[in-house]
User: Fold this.
Amino acid sequence: MKEYLIVDGYNVIHAWPELKGLAQANLEHTRLKFLEKMSNYAGVTGWSVIVVFDAHGVKQSGERQEDHSGVQVIYSRENETADSVIERLAHSMRGERVYVATSDWEEQRVVFGSGAYRLSARQLREEVIRAEKSIKDQSNPSFFGRNLENRLSDKVRGVLELWRRSKS
Assistant:
C-alpha cells in the first residue's frame, strides 16, 4: 500500500529550530531548503509527500500546485488556509495510508477523524534526521567499498578469521 505524507509547511518550518530563525530572515530560501529535505525524505522512504503552504493573506491568488524534486507542493488560494486544504486532501484520500505532519492540535484532531495518522513537527523532524543520516551513511565510501573487512566489527572479523584458518 502506498503511503502519503501531507505536511503543513509553515507550521513545520516554524516548529523546527534550524529553520525558524532562517524563516525570519528569508522565507523563500527557507521554503526551498525545507522542500529539499522533504524531497530527500521522500526518496529514502518511498512515500508520496505533499507540502501545503498557506497563501491565505495573498490577494487574488488561486490555488497553485507545483512539483519540487518529486514533492507535490500546494499553495492555498486567497481566503483559504493550509488547514482547509489539508483537511480536504485527508478526506479525499480516505482508505489510503495517510500521515499528516502538523503541530496544530486542532488540525491533528480533524485529520485523525478523517482516518489519517498524526505526526507532530517534532516527530517529522526526528524522521527526517534519521533519513539524512541514512543518506550520509550510504554515501560514505567505506559503506560500499569493495573491502568487506573494513565494514565488520572486530568480533565478527575474528570469528571469520578463525573459520577461514580451520578450512585450510
